[in-house]
Structure formats: C-alpha cells, structure tokens
C-alpha cells in the first residue's frame, strides 16, 4: 500500500485544515483538490474564485505548480505544514539578490526572501 503525506495547510488568517495526498501529487494538484473540497464551514470567509490562484509556501519558498510532494522529500505518514495563499502570480526571482547570494553577500532588501522551486 502506498503511504500518504498529511498536509496541514495554514491560511493567512491562521486557520488550518489537514488534507492527505500522495507523493506523486503536485502543488497544482493540491491547489485544485483544496479548491474543489474547500472547507466551507471553517474557511468560508477565505474563499477564492479559482484554484489557479492558490499557492503553496513550504519552508519560506513558493512552490511551482509542477513540483511534487515526493520531489520535496516530505516524510511519508507524517504531517507537514505548508502555507496556502491566494496570489495571481508567483514572485519573480530578484536578480540583484541572486548575485549577492552567489558572492556570499546578504540581500540589501530584507532578511526574508522567497524562491520558486
């Protein structure tokens, strides 16, 4: 039997809900599943207009829709926490920040940064 990955998704409001997925499920598959199975009772005020704007954030990074849970190396049979946010487009990588990091410097913007996987 194929083991599953339990995801605890956290909204910006702090509300959470747990879902179970397979390691072959992608971030895009998860967004569609969550949208199609939106927890109306708990997340009614957080409702979005379409699945495509739901984005997952894992360890401070936005996940590209094609990234699978298995590719992230998530533990099977355990709960992993991710943030779920409505966002039209993924942020563009900042070329200045990338140059600074490759030189070993720090970002001049701020201490927090997001990357697309």
TrEMBL record:
Domain UBL3-like ubiquitin, chain residue ranges per copy: 4-110
Pfam families: Rad60-SLD_2 (PF13881)
Stretches the record annotates as Disordered: 87-107
Biased composition annotated in UniProt, kind: Basic and acidic residues: 87-100
Domain of life: Eukaryota
PANTHER family reported in the protein's UniProt record: UBIQUITIN-LIKE PROTEIN 3 (PTHR13169:SF0), UBIQUITIN-LIKE PROTEIN 3 HCG-1 PROTEIN (PTHR13169)
UniProt name for this protein: UBL3-like ubiquitin domain-containing protein
